[in-house]
Amino acid sequence: MNTRTLGAQGPEVSALGLGCMGMSAFYGSADEAESIATIGRALDLGCTFLDTSDMYGPHTNERLVGRAIEGRRDEVFLATKFGIKLDPGDPTRRSIDGRPEYVRQACDASLQRLGVDHIEIYYQHRVDPSTPIEETVGAMAQLVQEGKIRYLGLSEASAATIRRAHAVHRITAVQTEYSLWSRDVEDEILSTLRELQIGLVAYSPLGRGFLAGRFSSPDELDEGDFRRYGPRFTGENLQRNARLAAVVRELAEQREVTPGQLALAWVLSRGADIAPIPGTKRTSYLEENIAAAQIELSGSEVEQIAAAVPAPAGERYDEQGMRGVNL
Predict the structure, then answer these.
(1) CB neighbours of 116 closer than 8 A, spacing ≥ 6?
(2) What is the pLDDT along the chain (327 residues), one digit of tens a residue?
(3) CA distance 228 to 218
């Protein structure tokens, strides 16, 4: 697989990464054997940029990824995140912690669960509004000096926060949702990243599977799948968004590719500094996604596709979730 550079001075990563969240959390039932096989197949195909977080599970996804890469560590560009703490008694309740002492504690715990001595990119999963970003990034920078992490990242941070963080220590990548139907990053954040030469890591580039045709109704999803209650997948929003997915399907048929491949190719076309990390827990979907890296869209095709898919109905997350983005 071709590689991309995360910012002008950043590291090279595979053009497509693999989001591992759904292997352990939020997307219904888990199959550890299939998930480990999927990670192994990704590495075989050159998809070496793996993304996880300590809150996926919580903790179980890091352990799974650690088992999957055992014996193949040198092939992997590993990313994980810290900052979201789930209430053990009620997983629906969460808090954000960016205190310097917690940064160190969380990193040491992630290293242990992953079974590695360093992490390539360490992200603050959500910005802590009660801790100055300078303090959080300062603690992360200390981990770089100690060799525990290689690069710093932020997730769902505003342009102003990115600038403040970058003034303390180089931020290599910012992770946020970016897809045909989540383009708000283009308004201000993407231009800021390019000015500061920071890479964009695009999660949910398939619209959480909806644009790829993985499901058409929440009734098709497992009971534990959080998409069953997502604003874009319920009520009238679902009906309106189904029409958007149908447009993607029609455009894909014209090019004789799958809807998911078209959606991924579009995100890839938006710049060589953008690395999408579509998530899957199935080898078949992984192989379909990776094939999208070979699809080239012309400038006119990119514009045509964007114009054909208007903004979706509904927010990306529920009210609580939206309060934690773009801080």
Answers:
(1) 66, 69, 73, 78
(2) 999 999 878 899 999 999 999 999 888 888 999 999 999 999 999 999 999 999 999 999 999 999 999 999 999 999 999 999 988 777 678 999 999 999 999 999 999 999 999 999 999 999 999 999 999 999 999 999 999 999 999 999 999 999 999 999 999 999 999 999 999 999 999 999 999 999 999 999 999 999 999 999 888 998 888 899 899 999 999 999 999 999 999 999 999 999 999 999 999 999 999 999 999 999 999 999 999 999 999 999 999 999 999 999 999 999 989 999 999
(3) 5
Give 177: exposed, middle or buried? Use CB within 10 Å, 0-12, 13-18, 19+.
buried
On whether the CB atoms of residues 172 and 258 are closer than 8 A, the answer is no
From the candidates 27, 56, 122, 151, give the one annotated as an active-site residue. Answer: 56
CB distance 102 to 153 below 8 Å: no
**CA separation for the pair 11, 2 (Å, rounded):** 13
Q: How far apart are CA 9 and CA 304, in angstroms?
A: 32
Question: How far is Cα 127 from Cα 194, in angstroms, rounded to an integer?
Answer: 21
Parallel, antiparallel or unpaired: strands 90-96 and 84-87? antiparallel
Q: How many CB atoms lie within 10 A of CB 283?
A: 16
Our answer to whether residue 56 is catalytic in this structure is: yes
Tokens standing for 164? Answer: 């403040």
Residue 211: both structure tokens together: 């644009």
Which residues are CB-contacts of 219 (< 8 A; sequence separation ≥ 6)? Answer: none
Q: Closest Cα to residue 196, out of 11, 8, 13, 326?
A: 8
What is the distance of C-alpha 207 from the center of its chain? Answer: 11
CB-based contact 140:149 (threshold 8 Å): yes
